[in-house]
Amino acid sequence: MATEPQTTTEAQGGAPCPEPGPAIFAYDGSDLAGYAIEQAGFQLSANREALVVCVWQPADVGFKPMKGKELHAAAANEVEAAAKETAAHGAELAEKAGFRAEPLTVEAAPTWKGLVKVAEDHTCGLIVIGSHQRSGLLGHLAGSVAAATISHFQSSVLVIHKPE
What we know:
Blueprint: E1 23-26, H1 31-43, E2 49-56, H2 76-96, E3 100-107, H3 111-121, E4 126-131, H4 136-141, H5 145-152, E5 156-161
Parallel strand pairs: 1-2, 1-4, 2-3, 4-5
């Protein structure tokens, strides 16, 4: 006898699961961040709403500007404009991967704080982030955006590793 697929946690006696909010894609203009968006297209349902977030800081740019632009970190308006361009590029990648994507920038330091704040403000249940595969003691001790995001976000984080 076939049963209806469950979309709730009723089998465990819990309340129904909420509808998933938009996914957050952490995008800094790097190949790794682009790869994470592409791979998420294979892992997540098609046509899901997504926010492509570029976190920026005036003192430390924090992302790779498009088209090789040289930025003066003290000129916050230049940095913010470049972050908007970077987020827009990431949103284009997300659209190609099958998401309904909107670019978004946030000024924050460190980067994980900006990602978590956006996720909380937009009731997002998932942050997608690319991460370098580090090995050995350095890999366990070195602080990274992915590790910090995981430890500070109260919901799910999908970490995408790019094979070497």
